[in-house]
UniProtKB/TrEMBL annotation:
Class of enzymatic activity (EC top level): oxidoreductase
Pfam entry (one): Aldedh
Residues forming the catalytic site: 254
Protein's recorded name: aldehyde dehydrogenase (NAD(+))
Organism: Tunturiibacter psychrotolerans
SUPFAM superfamilies recorded: ALDH-like
Entry-linked InterPro entries: Ald_DH/histidinol_DH, Ald_DH_C, Ald_DH_CS_GLU, Ald_DH_N, Aldehyde_DH_dom, ALDH7A1-like
Recorded family membership: Belongs to the aldehyde dehydrogenase family.
Summary of subunit composition and partner proteins: Homotetramer.
EC number assigned by the record: 1.2.1.3
Phylogenetic placement of the source organism: Bacteria, Pseudomonadati, Acidobacteriota, Terriglobia, Terriglobales
GO MF annotation, one: aldehyde dehydrogenase (NAD+) activity
Keyword terms of this UniProt record: NAD, Oxidoreductase
Length: 500
């Protein structure tokens, strides 16, 4: 069966009606066209946003634990469809089958989390300084949440946002990446089945808009959308952030990373090697948390780097659906060209490049590469830029303070790791003067976060937080309430204002 036929079968199984249209969808596995689908017009998008707003006005009246029931049902539908949706993720993004399945598992996990959360959207009660007064915080639904997502986590990012937003009493409007619209259509069909089992939800509660960046801009510009959660490149964030700020809308920005790990002299090198391999080469270097910089102590450099080169030389590259493959394709030719450009720049600055070459396949339109290990003397501009491909820049250090300084000397601040058995170094790395990233790990790689923790980064990574912890608060608005149950009217701070 061709991949196109397989896609048609999966979509039919998941309940996505066959469509045709002007958006060409390709699989990076072979580069072949797997679908032609319709995009939304600006007028229809505006109508859909208005419909979502009307849905929110109804949905906010549904008690939060009942809203949680919808998300529980969504989790159940996803469980039932883990296999086909996971396979579709693999076909559309080129990530390994276990990662495609893992992405759907992540959706299920956030649904479980959000269903529980729906009974815990609690505010504080705060002691009032005034007698017979009670002060408390109440969390209310916010409105329509706009979700703009990237190609590399085509459905998990929607679920991180949608599960929390929907239990919070919001409606969601989703603009997925134009490179991965089929998994979005499949997810929407799955949501609609859950909504039906729930007994129906207001029309437009979860809306999908297929289109390019222009549709994303409509979400950003719409006065009916008080929060936009945008995941993608820093360039996208730079375009989106000022527009949201200009209309005082809230933003969750999940942008590019340039993640590093420090390997200290006491590191458990076997564990370190395995962690680096997954973080740097996994998902063909196309995770926002991919390990891109390795800062290795001089004492272990000559032991670790030859071992790493061996792994880089032998890792199996090919069809992400095949047993044994560890590195699948890049998303497209643009990505391949960006990788080659960065490698060329590194070579020009004197770096020694191992790997990085294209791995030939029978199809010219598929872009498989051997991951590249780049030994480089200093942190050049090329190293400081995120290239969304499997390039690992390796730097040597002797002094821990220098390693930390190198670590933080990039514009991005998403994920970071240290490999050490030295408690002082580990704690320092996690302290206020250590890693400046939103995620800082010890003896574990930079990628592969769990949904229970708040996910996001600092600096040019945008400052947003999604998923667990108290990230839900961004999807709600907070009201501080003070109730006087006495007969006097004392003013705060002892202010007097007697009118008789
Ligand atoms: P991209 O920036 O090209 O596109 C992301 C999304 O933004 C797409 O849906 C696109 O249509 C939309 N978009 C682009 N310009 C826009 C604009 N001006 N207004 C509104 N919408 C716009 O990113 P990509 O190539 O799909 O994904 C890779 C990038 O995403 C990498 O930089 C990666 O680090 C980042 N990423 C970050 C996270 C995170 O959580 N920090 C997660 C995944 C991916």
């Amino acid at each position: 069966m061709t991949i196109r036929k397989e896609v048609e079968a999966i979509l039919a199984h998941l309940g996505v009606p066959a469509t045709t249209g002007n958006l060409t969808v390709r699989t990076p596995i072979t580069g072949e066209v797997i679908a032609q689908i319709a995009t939304i017009t600006p007028e229809a998008a505006n109508k859909a946003i208005a419909q979502a707003h009307a849905a929110y006005l109804e949905w906010r009246n549904v008690p939060a634990p009942k809203r949680g029931e919808l998300i529980r049902l969504l989790g159940e539908e996803l469980r039932t469809n883990l296999e086909p949706l996971g396979r579709l993720v693999t076909i559309e993004t080129g990530k390994l089958l276990s990662e495609g399945h893992g992405e759907v598992q992540e959706m299920i996990d956030i649904c479980t989390y959000a269903a529980g959360l729906s009974r815990q959207l609690a505010g504080l009660t705060v002691p009032s300084e005034r007698a017979k007064h009670r002060m408390m915080e109440t969390w209310h639904p916010l409105g329509v949440v706009g979700i703009i997502s990237a190609f590399n986590f085509p459905v998990a990012v929607w679920s991180w946002n949608a599960a929390l937003a929907l239990v919070s009493g919001d409606a969601v409007v989703w603009k997925p990446s134009e490179k991965t619209p089929l998994t979005a259509l499949a997810t929407q069909a799955i949501f609609e089945r859950a909504a039906k089992k729930f007994g129906g939800v207001p029309t437009g509660l979860a809306t999908l808009l297929i289109g390019d960046a222009k549709v994303g801009e409509q979400l950003v510009d719409s006065p009916l959308i008080p929060l936009v959660s945008a995941t993608g490149s820093t360039a996208m964030g730079r375009a989106v952030a000022p527009k949201l700020a200009a209309r005082f809308a809230k933003a969750i920005l999940e942008l590019g990373g340039n993640n590093a790990a420090i390997v200290a002299p006491t590191a458990d090198l076997d564990l370190t090697l395995r962690a680096i391999a997954f973080s740097a080469m996994g998902t063909a270097g196309q995770r926002c948390t991919t390990l891109r910089r390795l800062i290795v102590h001089a004492d272990v450099y000559d032991k670790l780097i030859p071992q790493l080169k061996k792994v880089y030389g032998s890792v199996v590259i090919g069809d992400p659906g095949a047993q044994g493959t560890l590195v699948g394709p890049l998303i497209d030719e643009r990505s391949y060209n960006a990788m080659q450009k960065s490698l060329e720049e590194a070579r020009t600055s004197g770096a020694a490049v191992t790997g990085g070459d294209r791995v030939p396949t029978t199809n010219d339109e598929a872009f498989y590469v051997r991951p590249a290990l780049v030994e480089i003397g200093s942190q050049t501009d090329t190293v400081k830029r995120e290239t969304f491909a499997p390039i690992l820049y390796v730097l040597k250090y002797s002094d821990f303070a220098d390693a930390l300084a190198l670590h933080n000397d990039v514009p991005q601040g998403l994920s970071s790791s240290i490999f050490t058995m030295n408690l002082r170094e580990a704690e320092l790395f996690l302290s206020a003067t250590g890693s400046d990233c939103g995620i800082a790990n010890v003896n574990i790689g930079t990628s592969g976060a769990e949904i229970g923790g708040a996910f996001g980064g600092e600096k040019e990574t945008g400052g947003g937080r999604e998923s667990g912890s108290d990230a839900w608060k961004q999807y709600m608005r907070r009201a501080t309430n003070t109730i006087n149950y006495g007969t006097d009217l004392p003013l705060a701070q002892g202010v007097s204002f007697d009118i008789d």
